[in-house]
Design brief:
Distance between the termini: 43 Å
Number of strands: 10
CATH class of the largest domain: Alpha Beta
Radius of gyration: 18 Å
Number of helices: 8
Strand order of the largest sheet: 1-2-10-7-8-9
CATH topology of the largest domain: Rossmann fold
Structural class: alpha/beta
Shape: globular
Largest sheet: 6 strands, mixed
Helix content: 25-40%
CATH architecture of the largest domain: 3-Layer(aba) Sandwich
Length: about 300
């Protein structure tokens, strides 16, 4: 088996014990168990394989894109496994763990203004790719249809099968929007009555890494807002608290966006009828945020 063959088919973890109400089920895809530690392995692999198949990615070219961390780590891992160099543009305030991991995989990392966030990294990466198209393969994760397609063919199908077709609600945060759009599109095809709920940071200035506050950001071309049936806003503090709770009471060590997803799922479940089945995503491992001070809180 090749390393890239290990991407996907992640476990579906039982989280119903977190709910105060009975008669509702909550499960989450354990995407932190992908080989590089995040859900982004799926999209990165799909985009790279699509590039190879189309001829846009050939030997000697460097994979180039913008990242807030996880997609970049996935590119770096897959690039190393398949023999491609990787150059990444990322905000300078990327967590030190993510920077170290990227460099361990051998990726070239170019820091961009932290004040401009992921949007600034995106603009710099696009500029570099357009300036030297013969040198780079530019997947453009925010606008590449192979990104949501990876979740349409993979994650969404897995949720349907692992829930035994019982899922009634899917809820997830959005960065490139690939996970949400791909899963929502597939699940609604399976059952048009499934409600798909978008998780959003409550403020444009937030600490939920890997997610976009869509109202104040450059919207990804992958985003299909017609798939959003409802929105749940989550504060950074709520995401931190849930990440701590998952680690300390369930042994599930995941990151901030995972905390946001589960916090939003619990709030959603409060208003649902008995018999509802909620599915969400545990996006990445908490090891990528271990230096963050929020872990030190007592409660």
């Amino acid at each position: 088996m090749r390393l890239v063959d290990m991407v996907g088919n992640t476990p579906f973890l039982y989280l119903s014990f977190l709910l105060e109400r009975k008669g509702i089920e909550l499960f989450a895809k354990a995407e932190f168990l992908n080989p590089s530690g995040s859900v982004k392995d799926r999209a990165a692999l799909a985009m790279i394989e699509d590039g190879i198949e189309s001829g846009l990615l050939s030997k000697g070219k460097t994979i180039l894109d913008a990242t807030s961390g996880n997609t970049g780590i996935a590119y770096a891992m897959i690039g190393a496994a398949l023999g491609y160099k990787v150059r990444l543009y990322a905000p300078e305030n990327l967590s030190p763990e993510r920077m170290r991991i990227l460099r361990c995989y051998g990726a070239e990392l170019i820091a961009t203004s932290p004040m401009e966030g992921s949007d600034g990294a995106y603009l710099k990466a696009r500029e570099a790719a357009l300036a030297s198209p013969d040198l780079f393969f530019y997947p453009d994760q925010y606008n590449n249809p192979a990104n949501p397609r990876a979740h349409y063919l993979g994650t969404g199908n897995e949720i349907w099968d692992q829930s035994g077709g019982k899922v009634t609600h899917f809820i997830a945060s959005m960065g490139s929007a690939g996970t949400f759009v791909g899963c929502a599109r597939r699940l609604k095809e399976k059952n048009p009555r499934i409600k798909c709920v978008a998780v959003q940071p409550k403020s444009p200035f937030h600490g939920i890494e890997g997610t976009k506050h869509m109202a104040s950001s450059i919207k990804p071309g992958n985003l299909d807002e017609s798939l959003i049936d409802q929105q749940v806003d989550v504060t950074t503090e709520e995401a931190y608290e849930m990440a701590r709770r998952l680690a300390r009471t369930a042994g599930i060590f995941v990151g901030i966006s995972s905390g946001a997803n589960v916090a939003a799922a619990l709030r959603l479940a409060e208003g649902l009828p008995e018999g509802s089945f909620v599915a969400t995503v545990l996006c990445d491992t908490g090891a990528r945020y271990s230096s963050d001070v929020f872990w030190e809180a007592k409660k």
